[in-house]
Amino acid sequence: MSARWTTAVLDPNTPGGLAVAHCAEGFLVDANGALFPRDWLRRQDLDVVCEHGIGHFDGQPVFLLELRSAQAPQGCSWRGLRQFMLEGDSDTYTLLGYAAQIATWAREHRFCGSCGQAMVQIQWERAMYCAGCELRSYPRISPSMIVLITRGDEILLARSPRFVTGVYSTLAGFAEPGESAEDCLVREVREEVALEVKNLQYVGSQCWPFPHSMMLGFHAEYAGGEIVMQADEIEDAQWFSVHALPPLPAGRSIARYLIDLYVARRLGLAEPVLPR
Ligand SMILES: NC(=O)c1ccc[n+]([C@@H]2O[C@H](COP(=O)([O-])OP(=O)(O)OC[C@H]3O[C@@H](n4cnc5c(N)ncnc54)[C@H](O)[C@@H]3O)[C@@H](O)[C@H]2O)c1
Ligand SMILES: [Mg+2]
Ligand SMILES: [Zn+2]
């Protein structure tokens, strides 16, 4: 949700409106961006898997076309969601982040996971329904903890082999069944760097549609232990002084926010705002 974008469950049988087209390569774009007149997109002979009515942008209904292949109409190309996160305006990124999550879920829930029959869209809520066994499947959201660990003027940052070269970030990890947010945080910190933490404080949350995380951001203080890096997951982990930080994650990430917030408080600077 944003000032210009609100989600809604719209009937794909209603005509008109705007549409975005999504496939494994990202979103279809032309010189005007990723939002197309829906009637024009429908005339392009696209290989559509399914269509969902997903909300309103500036009051206009928006539909999502999930495509099987990445064949782009003339004058169009594909752009990954990460590019929109890094460079796009935040209203468009919020819309596309939602659309990408619905697209992933819709593509992965065309058949019932319980009995195997084809599923159909429910008209009044965002769910797929199996008439054979009455199973309903809702969009999947994966809660993930993310934590900045501090020790006075020092903060703990680590690198995963998946990161952009040189970039260090806060620790993060997915919640497992049976855990509280705090349990998960303590377990992830032990697994990834073998440290103990104390004084856990919830700071804020962020939708992270890569592919369906909900980031719950915390601050924690170092309580003990020596860094032991988890094989395969952590390539390097170090204490950095707030006066000498390495390259940090993208400005729109909650990881960056947690770091910037602590540094701002430590150095008496203006506090940043959590990007949505
Ligand atoms: N927005 C941010 O600032 C920010 C920063 C760091 C990480 N993240 C995100 O946080 C999430 C978790 O971080 P991580 O990659 O360090 O996780 P992690 O430490 O739990 O380890 C990742 C591993 O967990 C497994 N996994 C993948 N999807 C899973 C799921 N849905 N549930 C349980 N396990 C799963 C896989 O084996 C994967 O290799 C990721 O989506 C990541 O992109 C966001
Ligand atoms: Mg992790
Ligand atoms: Zn079923």
UniProtKB/TrEMBL annotation:
EC class of the enzyme, as a word: hydrolase
Cofactor note: Divalent metal cations. Mg(2+) or Mn(2+).
Alphabetical GO biological process terms: NAD+ catabolic process; NADP+ catabolic process
UniProt motif Nudix box: location: 173-194
Sites where the protein binds a divalent metal cation 2: 188
Highest taxon in the source lineage: Bacteria
Record-annotated membrane-spanning stretches: none
Protein's recorded name: NAD-capped RNA hydrolase NudC
Organism, as annotated: Pseudomonas putida
